[in-house]
């Protein structure tokens, strides 16, 4: 197995020191109490876009604050207009996402932006006081991973876990963890909760020092997960704020729900809920991000669909690199099982198979009560699709008492913020789980 020192040396050699330079900048910004984005960096990406990107060329020399706020839907509708001249997506690094928006979207990145991302990772993990070249346990869904890809992950010091609950898999993960020091455990909060819950049920103990940081993504952290992480792994759960289109935006600090933002890579605005103007200091608003480095597909004033508020200082001024609150994300999670024995499930295991149904343009799943669900889909009438949606719930949730499918041509939204693929109408899902454990 390649040791961390060798991986560190290879990274430095490949990037000719660029990774280390970026890492130092990012780490310093994340540790800074107050750090705004560089006005020069903002002006540089705007000049580039207005010279080389068809959509922005039409804006002439308009200043940054007068540029339109972009959405994923706008970029999907005119993909060629938001690509830089000469950019060929098939030759660029890219990511495909729908996430909580339900809109399929492929974002592209030039080579320099990818190198920037590598440096970001190194700086971020140092901020988290973890070894960026050490071992990682990734807890998320791994679809269609080949044996070769698993071998490459193993060489990189990675272990892949997809919320399997069988004893053999759980014990294999525990053995892998127990043989290492300073592992970064990163994953969907529901998957982390499944793993630690199984450790508890099987009486598995992880040696002190095996884990350096637990990093939750994509879903809300429950009180149970926070308690289990401290007790079983000796470390609290930190949270990462990121999206597929832009990458790593920020991380929580120890003992805090506030996110420190990487303002060396992104310029973040909080705009009014109704108008494209800055929200009042400390007010909840739309999180709008400008990627300062992606030239293949510039994201300038990109509405992430998330809601948040900046921290404010004693003088009432915003702190531009601290999000005091992050809302509008996927804060709901499904509950499987029965009233007597409820258990947390994850909507990410539902998301992928539904996205494979070509007839469905958009969808939303709502849980009214334990065992009772409604699918809302933008699709033509089809008994076959309805049956498939029911089977997905049977396989991933189980104990289904009611499954209704409703068609709609309307945008699928629920409350403020981005449209969610899963919405819980259970008033307090975490309390339901807590009652089920007593």
What does this molecule look like?
With 438 residues, the protein is an alpha/beta fold. 33% of the residues lie in helices and 25% in strands. It contains 13 helices and 19 strands. It has an 11-stranded mixed sheet, with helices on both faces. The protein has a 4-stranded mixed sheet with strand order 18-17-16-19, covered by helices on one side. It has a two-stranded antiparallel ribbon with strand order 1-2. Helix 2 packs across helix 6. The model has no long low-confidence stretch (mean pLDDT 87).
Oligomer status:
single chain
How many β-strands, per DSSP? 19
Give the rounded overall mean pLDDT. 87
Measured by DSSP, the beta-strand proportion falls in: 25-35%
Biggest β-sheet: strands ordered side by side in the sheet: 4-3-5-6-7-8-9-13-12-11-10
What spatial form do the alpha-carbon principal axes imply?
Answer: globular
Q: Helix tally?
A: 13
Which structural class matches the secondary elements?
Answer: alpha/beta
Q: Radius of gyration, rounded?
A: 22 Å
What does the main sheet amount to? 11 strands, mixed
Sequence stretches where pLDDT stays below 50 over 5 or more residues: none
Distance between the termini: 44 Å
